[in-house]
Design a protein that fits this description.
Bound molecules: 5-S-methyl-1-O-phosphono-5-thio-D-ribulose
Number of strands: 16
CATH topology of the largest domain: Rossmann fold
Number of helices: 11
Structural class: alpha/beta
Shape: globular
CATH superfamily of the largest domain: Translation initiation factor eif-2b, domain 2
Number of domains: 2
Largest sheet: 7 strands, mixed
Length: 342
């Protein structure tokens, strides 16, 4: 399995997701600022992977902390990391966990604080892999045998510490012996589907067909798709789901064609402080991601551009939400709360 992110003696090592699949190269972040830059620049992306990176960023920042007020330095480290990708709730979840641990240790010797923060970040990484395997176990039963699964963006090993959420469900179904075929949306503008999902699934030998985003409706209507499985970046208390831009269109088209629409995500992606999805902040990214493909312009200069990185799918389009603690079904206000407390 691909190593998305690791803590090493040299720093935080990440596979460079901006270069895949053309090059399999690794980036070493030696400061917390470099970790923040890697998150912002999408060297590492995907909600759970960003959470792990943020935790390792905090550990790295404290490891290299200077003289002076450590409380203030931790605040600054966390604020810098928090200012990278506003929709990804796992980022804030991980920072919160690291901040709470720091608060419980702040009277301890510096060497102990550093060691404990490093251990916690490594623990978050390991837990994430186990969580994804559990999501896979719960989700595999929902995937119809002998059918094609449509997925969007990359919610795989690369978007997590390993195994993946949506792709974890597909992997687990295959491990159960189900005959699964995957359709991967290319996922403009960043092409996570074409570049990352296809690369990952090819490595596992899972049969995969690449389609452009605007072909999804055609295939959903054709009866060839058995279900849709996607990940999530933030899920509100009522089950509204923020995920990669284009997810909402897929969900509406899935419902129109009576195709089940599943969301696979860890409990840490739930944001039960938000009653509904319209309160989820949506990250706006650079115009160049839309006007250019691999540095080459695809539109006339000067064109106005909108580039929201995520959209929100209303809960009425979501058949079920698959978590490591079980599968939530409507009404989500009750089922998600129950899983979160279990
Ligand atoms: O902008 P990205 O590539 O970070 O967006 C990723 C997604 O939207 C994923 O579907 C989501 O984070 C779930 S990853 C397990």
């Amino acid at each position: 399995m691909v190593e998305t992110i690791q803590w090493t003696e040299d720093g935080v090592v990440m596979i460079d997701q901006t270069r895949l699949p053309r090059e399999e190269t690794y980036v070493t972040c030696r400061t917390y600022e470099e970790v923040a830059e890697a998150i912002r620049g999408m060297v590492i992306r995907g909600a759970p992977a960003i959470g792990v990176a943020a935790a390792m960023g905090v550990a790295l920042g404290v490891l290299l902390s200077g003289e002076g007020d450590l409380d203030a330095q931790v605040e600054k480290i966390c604020a810098t990391l928090a200012a990278t990708r506003p929709t990804e709730v796992n980022l804030f979840w991980a920072l919160d966990r690291m901040k709470k641990l720091y608060a419980s240790l702040r009277d301890r010797p510096l060497e102990e604080i550093r060691a404990r923060l490093i251990a916690e970040a490594q623990q978050i990484r390991l837990e994430d892999i186990a969580i994804n395997e559990a999501i896979g176990r719960h989700g595999a039963a929902l995937v119809p045998d002998g059918r094609t699964v449509l997925t969007h963006c990359n919610a795989g090993a690369l978007a997590t510490a390993g195994y993946g959420t949506a792709l974890g469900v597909i992997r687990a179904a295959v491990e159960l012996g189900k005959k699964i075929d995957v359709f991967a949306d290319e996922t403009r503008p960043f092409l996570q589907g074409a570049r990352l999902t296809v690369w990952e699934l090819q490595q596992d030998g899972i049969p995969t067909t690449l389609i452009t985003d605007n072909m999804a409706g055609h295939f959903l209507k054709s009866g060839r798709i058995g279900c849709v499985v996607v990940g999530a970046d933030r899920i509100a208390a009522n089950g509204d789901v923020a995920n990669k831009i284009g997810t909402y269109s897929l969900a509406v088209l899935a419902k129109e064609n009576q195709v089940p629409f599943f969301v696979a995500a860890p409990i840490s992606t739930l944001d039960l402080t938000l009653a509904a999805g319209d309160q989820i902040p949506i990250e706006q990214r650079a115009a160049a991601e839309v006007t250019h493909v691999f540095g080459a312009p695809v539109a006339p200069p000067g064109v106005r551009v909108e580039n929201p990185a995520f959209d929100v799918t209303p809960h009425r389009y979501v058949t079920a939400i698959i978590t490591e603690r079980g599968v939530a079904r409507p009404p989500y206000t009750e089922s998600l709360q129950k899983l979160a407390l279990s």
